[in-house]
Amino acid sequence: MKILVVGAGAVGGYFGARLVQAGRDVTFLVRPARAQQLQRDGLRILSPHGDVTLKPKTVTSSEIANPYDLIFLSVKAQPLDQAIKDMKPAVGPDTMIYPVLNGMRHIDSLVHSFGDKAVLGGVCMVSTDLDEQSRIVQITPMQKLIYGERSGGITERSGELTERIRALDKALRDASFDTELSLNITQAMWDKWVIIASLGLITCLLGGPIGEINRVPDGEQTALQALDECAAIGKACGFPTPQPLLENIRKQATMKDSQFTSSLYRDLQKGAPVEADTILGDLLDHGHAHHLETPLLQACCVRLRVYQNSLKH
What amino acid positions are annotated as catalytic residues? Predict the structure, then answer.
């Protein structure tokens, strides 16, 4: 299977490199400057699962000559429109597009550009960041990809898994990270959305790591209220967070010794653009549509939108 990774950043670079290590046929779609950097310095990963430096195959949009079997789309929300333009030459009639962006808004954009059939559902569970040397640093040991047909992954006639999702599963399995072929990928995407929205809301609105928030009076109560707001929206939309997962998030959100910060918070601290609308804003809109009161979520959206606007000046 020919795999094109769109985005050689903290997420795409990490999983793409692990697939290369496992012997898969992987090419990275990058800008010319990034291609030069990767050929000069290599794609470098610092990880609890083992460090790696490799010289990956790269291609720019103008150099794509033939379609790929699988496109692993791992950009953030802001460059999505440009990524769609850049990857168009790589999309053929049988190409699978496997996006692992946050939230749900990107699905509509991809379906509009490439059709309903091409677009799979996807979830990525990893905590990585780029350091000042452009190395990919894995912050926690967690590393998992979840994927599935948005229709449920089965053919209408036989009730069996589609042939292409089996091929995808075979290509991604046994590559030194966890994988899951989901028969309810939309639920899995909502589950992740509630998790990252809750933890992003808590850390960005309250301004610190989870442990520091829980060590001050009313910190734990406020963190739990934030989680309840996000979970209530998922439930109202028909995707209630499973109780065991909800309890696990509650434990993470109330640990007094935790140094955890969300990717939203880390971007905020770096003065970088944040995915305010795709992670929190869209969720808030769903809450408004169901007439839910979510004051903490609303306050955090306002804060991040003010911050985002300040970057334009």
Answer: 192
